Each structure stands twice: as C-alpha cells, then as structure tokens.
Here is the input.
Amino acid sequence: MYLRLLLIALAVWAAVMAVRALRARGPARREPRRRLPEGERMVRCARCGTFVPESRAVRAGGETYCSDEHAETCGG
Ligand SMILES: [Zn+2]
Here is the structure.
C-alpha cells in the first residue's frame, strides 16, 4: 500500500528534521579551536624579556635572545 509507505517515509523525515532541529540549537555546539603553531615553544629573550618562537630565537653564550642585536653581548 502506498499510503503506509508514505506514512513511514513521512515519519522518518519528521524524525530526521526533529533531530536536526535539536542539534542546531543544542548546547553541543562545537567551538572553533584556535590553531597554535605545531609544537612551537616560546623562549624568552635574556636581554629584553620578549618571548619569541624557538625557531626564531638567537642563541649566544648559552642564552636565548629575540634578535641578533640582543644576542651581541658587547653591544650598547
Ligand atoms: Zn631582546
């Protein structure tokens, strides 16, 4: 019987729509997570205290600096 199939289809459609409506306004909304640099560690400049990514840091004399200028120990 077409009528029964139609009713079943209608019931399924209604259920799907209900679930969608519940999900749309439900509290389980996913928050977009901020992407951090992959495993990037922040190091502190020994002179000015600025934090810089480890890959960009300059190392001199066992210390870490933010730039070449700060890495120079004899600089003024
Ligand atoms: Zn610095």
